[in-house]
Amino acid sequence: MADREIMYREALREAIDEEMGANPEVFIIGEGIAERGGSYKVTEGLLAKYGPKRVRDTPIAEAGMIGVGVGAAIAGTRPIVEILYVDFAMLGMDMIVNQAAKFRLMTGGEGRVPFVMRTQGGAGGGVAAQHSQSLEALFYHIPGLRVVMPSTPADAKGLLKHALRQSDPVMFLEHKHLYMTKGPVPEGEHVVAFGKGAIRRQGKDVTVIAWSNMVQRALDAAEDLAAEGIDVEVIDPRTLVPLDEDMILASVAKTRRAVIVQEAPRRGGVASDIASIIQDKAFFELDAPVTIVAGLNVPIPFNLTLEAASVPQKDDVVGGIRRALHIGPLAAAAE
Amino acid sequence: MTRHATDAAVAEPPRSNSDLFGLYRDMRRVRTFEERVGELFVRGQSAGSMLHLSIGEESAAVGLGSLMRKGDTFTTHHRGHGIFLARGADPNRMMAEIAGKETGYCSGKGGSMHIADMGLGHLGANAIVGGGIPAVVGAGLASKRAGEGDVSIAFFGDGAMQQGILYESMNMAALWDLPVLFVCINNQYGMGTRIEQATKGRALHLRAQALGLNGETVDGLDVRDVRATAQALLDDARLGHPGFLAVECYRFFGHARMDKSPYRAEQDETEGRAKDPVRFARDALIGDGTAPEDTLDSLDKEIEAEMDGAIDFAIAAKQPPLSSMFRDVYAVGEAEPEPVRTRIDRILAKD
Asked: Sorting pLDDT into bands at 50, 70 and 90, what band is B351?
């Protein structure tokens, strides 16, 4: 039986709803998530079903609410803290980096922080520099955090359900342009474990690694190149921490070429780290340098033309794949 | 707490304000423990010099520590040895942690500034000024849901009074009627900055009142005053009326062990140290005939022997193996962990 198709935001809501129904320790707090139903409508209807004690509006105080979530997790509950934009999570970085991420180690393994911070990032639509960032590299850098970036409605549901059943602090990074995308999502129990990537398209000529909103862009680029007889494999790691290195290395060993696509600025990004892992562990499998297609090293500009030019578009991905295949000018810089 | 099998003869905390002898004993234990921490450093046996002693602040630790009950939780600042000890911690395992040893409360990975113990409700000491404060609001939410009347207490210094996170936290505690108490141990110094140089408004409890919490300031000289004021606030907090308490005291020594306090005059120190809650209690016990001086002398000697034993225990303990490096960074192979609440209940059932 084919799964029904629902939107990414509906899939997230379904995961929260099912886990709240199954586990009384799960609750959610955030700005405007209860009566308003959330700016992206992920939490719509949950207040009516679970009441104000489990679906709670907070003051606009991001550091405080993240800290409250961390404390509630340490004390034995399973909070979800919704931060409206990942940009606003910067107010709570002490709570994330110095408190949540280190608690298990600092307590010699006695402490647990089963805390999920749901937030969203990404550019597009002219929401400007403080509402558009892709900040996964900041969290990726911090040992102790899990970093999850679902690209499909099914993964949004399955990964969030897993996040609410494990015991590490999770940065659950959604993308604002995925909320309205639709896809097949299994009803009821559907859990996607962390650390297992997905092959979104099988191919033999080149491996493209992409996550979040860049997965669809990579698939669109692959479609264009298929018309020229170029067979692209697209891999979506789904979680950056833990990273499915095995899947990436196996694919690179097969295609002998790798292109990594990230929306975030190139400098200090996750793509650079994945490239270093590939060169370290699969150097002799490669027929070409690892190519990175990334955002420019600029704050996201407001102007729509500038904004679009600052993050990878389909043609940028196509260009990156051509470079990896030595098609076109070899010397062309990534940005 | 199954990993460690040390048994300490932990004294029962005083059950009433009239038990000044018990309160004195607990304060003396804190004082002597801290002196031994200093000794551990001088002997080159502490893992690092980030040791922040709470000498002079014992009435806050014992006044509050003697009121906490099973199920209550708390977080502390970086100067929290005394609070944890007053709550019933094993001095051996504390000293071992301060020495970075495997048998310490956190397997040597937390240290003085991050000591914690889920079993005693210690949700963590913190090296970020104000960093542990919002966690008690979260724990208060959890407690309110559980409905057992357990309270969660944040301990911090006057330095944290100027951090924004305190106000976000107090606001939410009041807004949501949580069983939470905020305790500012005002030792007059935020690192090397005297409170007068840090803020104009020094009636600290008024800030809490402005946000809708109960707010009090108490002189820390007499531990009975601290305990009585804290008792009233705690009772109310258990009913969902959060409170704030500032305990006025004096930090006898520098910020950390390497700090020789160049920012304060010798005369200030002499005057400050005259406000000694341990000596005050001792004089009171002798003065009203509760305990003769030789009884107190022998009690002090017993405590010294206990804390000397803690040093010996710490020095003899093993270093954590290098193979423990990656343990406890993430849950490994823990797809369906035991629910945390069940886990805490199981641990609590053991003490």
From this structure: very low
Chain B residues whose CB is inside 8 A of the A170 CB are none
∠ CA B37-B108-B251, nearest 5°, is 30
Partnered with residue A304 across adjacent β-strands are none
Q: Which of A57, A34, A58 is nearest to A44 (CA)?
A: A34
Extents of the domains making up chain A: 4-185, 198-334
In this prediction, residue B347 has a pLDDT band, given cuts at 50, 70 and 90, of low
Residues 135-164 of B with CB under 8 A from A: 135-139, 141-143, 145, 152, 164
Determine, yes or no, domain membership for B224: yes
Picking from A195, A292, A179, A299, the residue whose alpha carbon sits closest to that of residue A242 is A195
- Confidence band of B2 (pLDDT split at 50, 70, 90): very low
- Asked if the structure places residue B340 within a domain, the reply is yes
CATH class of A198-334: alpha beta
Domain A4-185 class, CATH top level:
alpha beta
Counted domains in chain B: 1
B178 touches chain A (CB under 8 A): no
Quick check: bond before A242 cis, omega within 30? yes
CB environment B254-277: b (16+ within 10 A), e (fewer): bbbbeeebeeeeeeebeebeebbb
To test the contact with chain B by mutation, choose from A23, A66, A96, A110 the residue with the greatest count of B C-beta atoms within 10 A, namely A110
- B9 inside domain: no
What residue numbers bound the domain in which B258 lies? Answer: 20-349
Any domain includes B12: no
In Å, how far are B71, B144, B181, B230, B243 from B238, measured between CA atoms? 12, 9, 9, 12, 10
Question: Which among B78, B145, B148, B167 is the top mutation candidate for probing chain A, defined by the most A β-carbons within 10 Å of its own β-carbon?
Answer: B145
pTM for this model (two decimals): 0.88
- pLDDT tens string B277-330: 999 999 999 999 999 999 999 999 999 999 999 999 999 999 998 888 888 899
Q: Which residue of A has its CA nearest to B177?
A: A53
Query: Within an 8 Å CB–CB cutoff, is residue B124 touching chain A?
Result: yes
pLDDT for res A334:
44
Interface ipTM = 0.84
Q: Cβ of B134 and A67 within 8 Å?
A: yes
